[in-house]
Design goal:
seven-stranded antiparallel beta sheet, two-stranded antiparallel ribbon, alpha+beta, 178 residues
C-alpha cells in the first residue's frame, strides 16, 4: 500500500514537468508574417492603441504547424508622428504584443515581444507645370521657381497601414505556447 502511494505521489509530482515538456516554444528570431485587418492611420491613431491583426500564413516549426493562418495577433501602436509635428517625418510604428489562442473559457492571451514595423508618410508630388507656366509664375513671384516639372513637395501624406498589408515582425524573446 505504501508503495502504491509513493508511486502515485511521484506521478503527481512529475506531472507538471511532463506538461511543461509538451509546451511548444517559439524561438527568438522567429518571423511572424502578420496581416493588418483594420486601418491604422497616423492622422487618427494614438500611441498605446491596440489593433487586432492575424497571422498571414501557417507558422511552421520543425515540419509541424504551430499556429494556423488567421490566428489573431494583438499589435500596439508604439509611436505616432503627424505631419507638421516638429521636424519629424510623419510615421506610425507597430509592435506585436500578444497572440490570442482559442480555449474553452474564451481566448488565452499569450504575451510576445517583437521588433517594430514603421510606415513613413509619402511626400506629395506636385503637379507638373510646363515651361510657359513657370515663366508666368516667375514674373509675378519675388522668388521665381526653377524647379523641374513633377517635383516633390516638402509636405507629406500621413503614414498609414491599410487592411491587407502584410508586415514581417521577428520575435525578440523566446515564447512558450500553452
Amino acid at each position: 500500500m505504501f508503495r502504491r502511494f509513493t508511486l502515485a505521489a511521484a506521478f503527481v509530482a512529475f506531472l507538471p514537468l511532463s506538461m511543461v515538456a509538451q509546451q511548444t516554444s517559439l524561438r527568438s528570431g522567429t518571423s511572424l508574417p502578420i496581416r493588418i485587418d483594420q486601418p491604422v492611420s497616423g492622422q487618427t491613431v494614438q500611441a498605446g492603441t491596440e489593433v487586432v491583426a492575424s497571422l498571414a500564413v501557417d507558422l511552421v516549426q520543425n515540419g509541424h504547424t504551430i499556429l494556423p493562418a488567421g490566428t489573431p495577433v494583438v499589435l500596439r501602436v508604439s509611436e505616432v508622428s503627424r505631419s507638421g509635428d516638429g521636424n519629424a517625418l510623419p510615421h506610425v510604428t507597430l509592435r506585436a504584443i500578444a497572440i490570442l489562442l482559442p480555449s474553452g473559457d474564451g481566448a488565452i492571451r499569450v504575451p510576445i515581444l517583437t521588433a517594430e514595423s514603421m510606415r513613413i508618410g509619402a511626400p506629395i508630388e506636385l503637379k507638373p507645370i510646363n515651361k510657359a507656366a513657370r515663366l508666368l509664375i516667375g514674373r509675378h513671384d519675388k522668388y521665381p521657381t526653377s524647379a523641374p516639372a513633377g517635383v516633390w513637395s516638402s509636405n507629406y501624406q500621413d503614414a498609414r497601414f491599410i487592411p491587407g498589408d502584410i508586415i514581417q515582425l521577428n520575435l525578440t524573446e523566446e515564447t512558450l505556447l500553452p
